[in-house]
Amino acid sequence: MTIAHIIEHLATRPFDLEEIRGSDVTLRPLRDRDLDWIFALYRETDVWGAFGWKEPRNRGQVGQIAAAMRKGFADDPRMYQVAFAIVCKGEQQPCGVITLKVANDAADLTIAIAKSGRRKHAALGAAQALFEWCRAKTPIRTILGNALHSNAASIELMKRLGMKDQGVQDAAGDGRSVRHFESDLKP
Ligand SMILES: CC(C)(COP(=O)(O)OP(=O)(O)OC[C@H]1O[C@@H](n2cnc3c(N)ncnc32)[C@H](O)[C@@H]1OP(=O)(O)O)[C@@H](O)C(=O)NCCC(=O)NCCS
Predict the structure, then answer these.
(1) How many A from CA of 123 to the centre of ligand 1?
(2) How far is the CA of 160 from the CAs of 96, 147, 152, in angstroms?
(3) Rounded to an integer, what distance in angstroms lies between the CA atom of residue 56 and that of residue 65?
(4) How far apart are CA 168 and CA 58, in angstroms?
(5) Nearest C-alpha to atom 20 of ligand 1 is from which residue?
(6) Which residue ranges have their beta carbon within 6 Å of ligand 1?
(7) Number of structural domains, the chain?
(8) Which domain holds residue 134?
(9) Residue nearest to atom 15 of ligand 1 (CA)
(10) pLDDT tier at 5, thresholds 50, 70, 90
(11) Which atom of ligand 1 is found nearest the CA of 114?
(12) Cα–Cα distance between 84 and 95 in angstroms, integer?
C-alpha cells in the first residue's frame, strides 16, 4: 500500500477474511476473476435499483467497485469494507455478494442474490453466517440495514434476520423513503 492509499483510505480492515461455512451456503472472500458474474449481477435492474443507483454501472465501474471490495476499501475513507461471494451448497458459481461497510463497531449490510438463485434462503443463510462470524471474530457490535420502503424482499429479509425495525427515519435524498433496521450482536 502506498502513502497515497493510506491517506485516501484512513480505515483499513483490522482482521483477515476467511471462508465462512453456513448450513447451506459458504461465504468466500472475493477473487480477481470474480468480475464477470459480479458484473452480470450488478446489471440486474432490481439490484442496482436497490443500491440506489440511477442507472447500471458499466464494466469498468463495476471492476473498480469489485477491486475496492476485494481490498476492503469503502467509498467513505473513514470506513472499511468486508465482502464475500455467496456460494450455495453443491454449486461452483456464486449466486450473490454480501458486504459490510464498517465504521468503528457498526456495519452497514448490503446483499444481492442473482434472480436465478432467489427464494432458496441463500440471503438468509449468508447473513446469518456472517452475523455469527462478526460476533465471534470481529470487533463489529452492530449491524445496520437500510431498505427502500418499496423493497418488500429486503424488508422481509431483515425482519426474518431478527433485525429491529427502526422505522422510516429519512428519505434516500431523491424522494424515496428508506426503512432502517438494526441488530446488536454483542448486547
Ligand atoms: C432481497 C434479496 C437479497 C433476498 O434474497 P433471497 O435469497 O431470495 O432471500 P431468501 O430466500 O434468503 O429469503 C429469506 C426471507 O426473506 C423474505 N423474502 C425474500 N424475498 C422475498 C420477496 N420477494 N417477497 C417477500 N419476502 C421475501 C422471506 O421472509 C424469506 O423467507 P421465506 O422464504 O421462508 O418466506 C434478493 O431479493 C435480492 O437480491 N434483491 C435485489 C437486491 C436487494 O434488494 N438487496 C437488498 C438491499 S441491499
Answers:
(1) 7
(2) 18, 14, 12
(3) 13
(4) 31
(5) 153
(6) 46-47, 50, 110-113, 118-124, 147, 151-154, 156-157, 160
(7) 1
(8) 3-184
(9) 157
(10) low
(11) 39
(12) 11
Q: Tell me the per-residue pLDDT of 27-69, one tens digit each, with 9 for 90 and over.
A: 999 999 999 999 999 999 999 999 989 999 999 999 999 999 9
Q: What are phi and psi of 4, to 5 degrees?
A: -60, -40
* pLDDT tens for each residue of 108-166: 999 999 999 999 999 999 999 999 999 999 999 999 999 998 999 999 999 999 999 99
How buried is residue 126: exposed, middle or buried, by Cβ count under 10 Å (0-12/13-18/19+)?
Answer: buried
Parallel/antiparallel/unpaired status of strands 25-29 and 20-21:
antiparallel
- Say how far apart CA 39 and CA 73 lie, in whole Å: 18
CA dist., res. 56 & res. 49, Å (int): 8
Length of the chain: 187
Distance 182 CA to ligand 1 centre (A): 17
Pocket test for ligand 1, best of 65, 88, 124, 161 (most atoms within 8 A of CB): 124
Bridge partners of residue 57, in order along the sequence: none
Residue with cell 440471503: 123
CA distance linking residue 161 with residue 178, whole number of Å? 18
CATH, residue 180: 3.40.630.30
